[in-house]
Design goal:
It contains two helices and 17 strands. The chain is α+β, with helices and mostly antiparallel strands and 263 residues long. Helix 1 packs antiparallel against helix 2.
């Protein structure tokens, strides 16, 4: 009965982390380019009371043993990189990646971060940057007198200048992909991800080539969080939490009964 108390406690702790993850997903249901997370669980060590295949007094072997587990633990919180729906905005600097890949931005310390959030802006110098002021890399500068900016599916950026009917090519947006996108580090927030040893090194290329997705101008990628699915998972987690708490209550009542036994 003492074992059951600790086993049920591990279940409650695990479901608390599950609820925390679901809450984070639901909070970001309208966050551009957000990728939901999922908690993975593992069972804990087992106590072997009688091993399977052990020999009996009659000289035979038992087909099944006796093992009692000690509960559960969260093993990972994994990002799920399924595509989110596209929303048409009409903004000429809004970009969505259809397929695999990330935009690159420069951080103040000189390192590179990666994002699926394509809501870019232009600063006073014509530099394309995020809402937090992080410059896109490779750097692209739009002439301050540009009338129309065109971004092709292959990442080619062009601008129409007054007095010149022929669009001027400004450069090409480069995307990156990782062997293990789920291994990227999201500690910065702000829709930014960082490279880790688990993610592998980034592979840079032109949109539409080498497995990279294409770019859709005037669109943004919505969060891939499905509200109904998250609410369903929340109900399941809540019921599992209640069941584990009831196990603790039952084990406590059994201990109380045993303590009240008199000769």
């Amino acid at each position: 009965m003492i074992r059951s108390l600790f086993t049920a406690a591990t279940g409650m702790i695990a479901q608390q982390m599950n609820i925390d993850t679901i809450a984070h997903n639901l909070a970001n249901v309208n966050t551009t380019g957000f990728k939901k997370s999922r908690v993975n669980f593992q069972d804990l060590l087992y106590e072997t009371i009688k091993p399977a295949g052990s020999e009996t007094q009659a000289g035979t072997t038992i087909p099944e043993g006796m093992q009692i587990g000690h509960g559960v633990r969260p093993s990972a919180i994994a990002k799920v990189f399924t595509a989110g729906g596209l929303i048409q905005t009409g903004n000429q600097l809004d970009m969505a990646i259809e397929g695999d890949g990330f935009f690159q931005v420069n951080l103040p310390d000189g390192s590179i971060a990666y994002t699926r959030d394509g809501a870019f802006k232009i600063n006073e110098n014509g530099n394309i940057m995020t809402a937090d002021g992080y410059l896109m890399t490779p750097a692209l500068t739009v002439p301050t007198n540009a009338e129309l900016i065109t971004i092709g599916s292959d990442g080619t950026v062009s601008a129409t200048i007054p007095g010149n009917s022929t669009p001027q090519t400004l450069g090409t947006i480069q995307l990156v992909r990782f062997a293990n996108s789920a291994g990227l580090d999201a500690r910065l927030g702000k829709n930014l991800l960082l490279e880790t040893q688990a993610s592998g090194t980034p592979s840079t290329g032109q949109p539409g080539l080498d497995g990279l997705g294409t770019i859709s101008q005037g669109f943004l990628e919505n969060s891939n969080v499905q509200v109904v699915e998250e609410i369903l998972q929340m109900i399941i987690a809540q019921r599992a939490y209640e069941a584990n708490s009831r196990v603790i209550q039952t084990a406590d009542e059994m201990l109380q009964t045993a303590n009240n036994v008199r000769r």
